């Protein structure tokens, strides 16, 4: 496997990374819109009271952001700066290791609990995406998960355990606020809906000699319930808003939060999964750390009864096991419309 991170400098974009003109990204300058910005929500250190007007206001802000964009950023979230920096530094060290040290982890086998690869597992045609990535199960730090993590760099495992536990707690807080904002019981998303192993994707995008001809990551929606992403201070994430691609501008210390397909289905379309992609830049490397909250494989997914009204808003999706959705997502190569079509209910 030829990894981009194995080359110290890329002088030109190899032909296999060059996309046809109609599939290339718009210039980032086209996406700097003064009138559209993804909401930034203050979580007040993650210590919101159990019940008061302030908490209800934050929950309402999350729902408004979810309905309008499917994306928002959270600040003052309670995850320590040192915790974030510690794992980001360990992950960067992993990609910087010599090729021979990374070789044992290289695989496109999606069943492996820790794997390193390049481009993407989906849409693997002749054109490659400009990224390397590691995917693995990060929480809980059970022996079954941890024994697959790399032994080098030495700080990888301890920093990962600290980071993933803190982000797990943050994700549960956000899910509780989402439930309350929708008028559901605060613990609605607890249990099987968020109780699967939490997965992590660490994406590494080296500096690209010509960002106008290639892409970092294909346009897609996430398959699971919720994503909490650290993108640090380097731009590159774009989210679709209507017929435009908007840059999610980095905010110091913030996490980007977006909904996956399961959130859209459970809320009967009230909170939609937003399509997003990654573009490259020529100046510096970019690394994003995405934490994905999953249902359990056997979890039965269906629109919440509170979100269904036979006359006003009938159920849009049939009931299914999450494992069935995972298979359909892989078969559809992450295509938003194709995978959702498999589970939609037709109303004549």
From TrEMBL:
GO MF entries: metal ion binding; oxidoreductase activity
Keywords: Iron, Metal-binding, Oxidoreductase
SUPFAM superfamilies assigned: Clavaminate synthase-like
Swiss-Prot/TrEMBL cofactor(s): Fe cation
PROSITE patterns xrefs: FE2OG_OXY
Domain Fe2OG dioxygenase, first and last residues per copy: 196-295
InterPro entries referenced in this protein's UniProt entry, alphabetically: DIOX_N (IPR026992), IPNS-like_FE2OG_OXY (IPR044861), IPNS-like_sf (IPR027443), Oxoglu/Fe-dep_dioxygenase_dom (IPR005123), Plant_2OG-oxidoreductases (IPR050295)
Protein origin, superkingdom: Eukaryota
Matching Gene3D superfamilies: B-lactam Antibiotic, Isopenicillin N Synthase, Chain
A Pfam family that the UniProt record links to this protein: 2OG-FeII_Oxy
Family assignment from sequence similarity: Belongs to the iron/ascorbate-dependent oxidoreductase family.
Protein name: Fe2OG dioxygenase domain-containing protein
Source organism of this protein record: Triticum aestivum
């Amino acid at each position: 496997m030829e990894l981009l991170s194995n080359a110290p400098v890329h002088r030109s974009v190899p032909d296999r990374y060059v996309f046809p003109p109609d599939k290339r990204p718009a210039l980032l300058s086209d996406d700097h819109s003064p009138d559209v910005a993804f909401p930034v929500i203050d979580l007040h250190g993650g210590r919101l009271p159990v019940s008061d007007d302030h908490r209800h206001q934050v929950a309402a802000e999350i729902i408004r952001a979810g309905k309008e964009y499917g994306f928002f950023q959270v600040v003052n979230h309670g995850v320590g700066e040192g915790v974030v920096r510690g794992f980001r530094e360990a992950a960067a060290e992993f990609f910087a290791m010599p090729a021979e040290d990374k070789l044992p982890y290289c695989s496109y086998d999606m069943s492996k609990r820790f794997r390193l690869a390049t481009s993407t597992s989906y849409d693997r045609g002749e054109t490659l995406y400009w990224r390397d990535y590691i995917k693995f199960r990060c929480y809980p730090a059970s022996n079954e998960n941890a024994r697959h993590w790399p032994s080098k760099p030495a700080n990888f495992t301890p920093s990962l355990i600290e980071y993933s536990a803190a982000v797990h707690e943050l994700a549960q807080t956000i899910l509780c606020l989402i439930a309350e904002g929708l008028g559901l019981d605060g613990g609605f998303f607890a249990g099987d809906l968020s109780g699967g192993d939490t997965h992590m994707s660490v994406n590494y995008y080296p500096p690209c000699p010509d960002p106008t001809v290639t892409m970092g990551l294909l346009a897609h929606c996430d398959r699971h319930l919720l994503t909490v992403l650290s993108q640090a201070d380097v731009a590159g994430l774009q989210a679709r808003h209507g017929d435009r691609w908007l840059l999610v501008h980095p905010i110091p210390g913030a996490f980007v939060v977006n909904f996956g397909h399961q959130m859209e289905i459970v809320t009967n379309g009230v909170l939609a999964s937003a399509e997003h992609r990654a573009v490259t830049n020529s100046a510096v490397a970019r690394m994003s750390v995405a934490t994905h909250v999953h249902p359990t494989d056997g979890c039965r997914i269906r629109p919440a009864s509170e979100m269904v009204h036979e006359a006003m808003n009938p159920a849009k999706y049939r009931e299914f096991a999450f494992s069935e959705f995972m298979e359909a997502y892989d078969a559809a190569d992450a295509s938003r419309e194709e995978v959702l079509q498999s589970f939609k209910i037709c109303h004549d």
